[in-house]
């Protein structure tokens, strides 16, 4: 579908303005270059078929003036958006799950005939992906206040589809959603009952203080006894109308965590699944993705015009847009999604709250609720309990991780899962080791379109230390890593401004293709002997050097070593394995003074025995693959 050049130019100029505004709202957390693995593997996507809504909820993240816009997506653009989503998923070798939401505004304000045709069409695409072995889920978001009664029959017609659910939100009375004195709430409940034996109703609780005050028993009596079997608990978004709602009604994180735990326990006799705890249980077996905190690898969004934003929960003047505007019908649209998303991915993988750095669950939790990750530290602290008797609570609900870890945390499962990831990377590196001369970024610095045409066929790319089309070098590395390109660093990575963070991601196993030579790591550490990353690497090297003959302390738990306080456990598994594999290249570095005072507990000694085999397996894979 051709587009007006003038409109394209206008969209791009608007995108540049919004990108500059976004930079002013950059992460308030300082990058620490923490060498710990992060695991996020889901591509979550949304399409707003329209923005108008027949309700006026105070908690809504959409800026209120947008809800009055009566514009509707056309069918070719909707289908093109779905197709580009699938294309972008196939481009990224690092994601293994796909989730597609459709929403508004209110999606049932679309002409009925649109969804009569496109709901089954979308479900066919989702089924095709699942049949091909790609775990894919589809969610139809609605407030159930449809005006066309035919929607009930349409939704019921697909009520047993294995990959579809209907998301319906519920908030406390202070949100104003159901009118004065909750006047239209009975109608809402009647429509839940009318949907009857749908196996796919997902009740999304917006965890404002009003929900906390109602209590979990209210949810059981009002919804679960009406057949709801799946509940998601979302915290308040501090955007749009929700900004004022957040300031007035955001509860303590500890109160939200207790609500989730109590609701789970109360719901067991009814077969209720509370997604947050269910997801934690699964994540703890491997410390892999936790998908209920909006820390997915992708959270991008198509609007009713087919324009892309990078976060569906920030709209209007708060929208996070790619540096150059992107429309679903643009050339190389799928590739440009992966490129544009790199800034958001970097926020998720390069930053954490300071209280997260030593947390055993960081790898899966990734600092908890992403919309609160950019808040001022003082605001976050305001909602964290300071009652020592009540225990520690945070935006990731530490106490819930502790509760579920008792029966679900499996350190050996963490290593097995990590070994699979490390071997996959080793195979990619070995297969690409004979790559021809690298494509040079600098050759395309002034030609946006030609850059994407060239990178499609590139096996290796030489990166320069400077911004390119709105992305820093560290942000761009996520793009190359996601599409499987090897990277060379112009002048060596140790000379880059973001060297510490890039090296931290390498040694932590956060890249799936990108590697850095041990000599470059040694150069960085020698030049920065007092850097926190140097301390971690130096302490890991001493553990690798001396663990076989280290004295064993009679103590429970894992040992710590050195100035960094490095815990000899799964917390730093990738770092320890990387150092073990590059030990000879690191030896002799001025920053790596010998420290014979390595002491291990039985748990740490057994752990080092286990990952010795892991390091050997990766090395053998590299050697056999390069022959």
Automatic annotation (TrEMBL):
Q: Which InterPro entries match?
A: Aldolase_TIM, rSAM_sf
The superkingdom of the source organism is Bacteria
Q: Which UniProt keywords apply?
A: Plasmid
Q: Which CDD domains match?
A: Radical_SAM
What is the name attached to this protein's record?
A: Uncharacterized protein
Organism, as annotated: Pseudomonas fluorescens (strain SBW25)
């Amino acid at each position: 579908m051709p587009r007006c050049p003038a409109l394209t130019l206008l969209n791009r100029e608007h995108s540049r303005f919004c990108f500059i505004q976004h930079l002013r709202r950059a992460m308030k957390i300082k990058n620490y270059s923490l060498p710990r693995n992060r695991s996020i593997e889901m591509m979550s996507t949304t399409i707003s078929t329209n923005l108008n809504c027949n309700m006026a909820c105070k908690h809504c993240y959409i800026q209120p003036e947008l809800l009055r816009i009566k514009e509707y997506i056309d069918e070719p653009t909707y289908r093109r958006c779905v197709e580009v989503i699938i294309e972008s998923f196939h481009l990224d070798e690092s994601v293994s799950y796909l989730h597609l939401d459709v929403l508004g505004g209110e999606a049932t304000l679309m002409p009925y005939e649109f969804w009569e045709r496109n709901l089954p069409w979308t479900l066919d695409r989702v089924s095709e992906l699942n049949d091909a072995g790609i775990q894919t889920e589809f969610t139809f978001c609605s407030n159930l206040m449809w005006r066309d009664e035919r929607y009930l029959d349409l939704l019921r017609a697909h009520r047993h589809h294995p990959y579809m659910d209907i998301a319906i939100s519920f908030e406390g009375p202070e949100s104003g959603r159901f009118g004065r004195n909750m006047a239209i709430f009975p109608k809402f409940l009647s429509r839940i009952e009318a949907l009857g034996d749908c196996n796919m109703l997902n009740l999304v609780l917006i965890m404002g203080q009003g929900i906390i005050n109602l209590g979990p028993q209210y949810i059981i009596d009002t919804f679960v006894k009406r057949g709801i079997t799946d509940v998601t608990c979302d915290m308040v978004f501090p955007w749009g109308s929700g900004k004022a709602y957040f300031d007035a009604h955001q509860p303590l994180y500890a109160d939200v965590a207790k609500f989730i735990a109590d609701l789970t326990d109360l719901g067991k006799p009814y077969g209720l699944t509370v997604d947050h705890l269910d997801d934690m249980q699964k994540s703890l077996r491997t410390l892999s993705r936790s998908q209920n905190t909006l820390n997915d690898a992708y959270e991008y969004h198509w609007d009713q015009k087919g324009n892309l934003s990078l976060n569906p929960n920030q709209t209007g003047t708060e929208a996070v847009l790619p540096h150059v505007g992107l429309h679903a019908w643009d050339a190389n649209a799928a590739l440009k999604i992966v490129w544009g998303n790199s800034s958001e991915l970097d926020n998720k993988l390069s930053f954490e709250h300071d209280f997260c750095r030593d947390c055993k669950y960081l790898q899966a939790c990734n600092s908890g609720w992403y919309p609160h990750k950019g808040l001022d530290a003082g605001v976050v602290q305001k909602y964290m309990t300071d009652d020592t008797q009540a225990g520690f609570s945070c935006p990731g609900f530490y106490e819930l991780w502790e509760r579920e870890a008792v029966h679900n945390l499996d350190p050996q499962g963490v290593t097995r899962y990590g070994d699979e990831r490390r071997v996959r990377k080793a195979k990619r590196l070995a297969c690409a080791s004979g790559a021809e001369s690298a494509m040079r970024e600098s050759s395309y610095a002034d030609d946006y379109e030609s850059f994407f045409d060239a990178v499609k066929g590139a096996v290796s790319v030489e990166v320069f230390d400077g911004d390119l089309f709105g992305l820093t070098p560290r942000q761009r590395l996520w793009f190359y890593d996601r599409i499987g390109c090897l990277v060379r660093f112009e002048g060596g990575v140790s000379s880059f401004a973001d060297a510490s963070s890039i090296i931290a991601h390498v040694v932590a196993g956060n890249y799936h293709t990108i590697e850095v030579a041990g000599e470059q790591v040694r150069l960085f550490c020698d030049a920065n002997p007092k850097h926190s990353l140097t301390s971690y690497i130096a302490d890991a090297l001493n553990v690798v050097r001396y663990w076989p003959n280290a004295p064993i302390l009679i103590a429970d738990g894992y040992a710590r070593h050195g100035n960094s306080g490095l815990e000899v456990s799964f917390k730093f598994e990738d770092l320890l394995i990387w150092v073990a594999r590059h030990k000879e290249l690191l030896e002799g570095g001025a920053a790596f003074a010998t420290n014979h005072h390595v002491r291990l507990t039985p748990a740490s000694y057994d752990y080092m025995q286990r990952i010795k085999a892991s390091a050997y397996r990766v090395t053998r894979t590299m050697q056999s693959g390069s022959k």
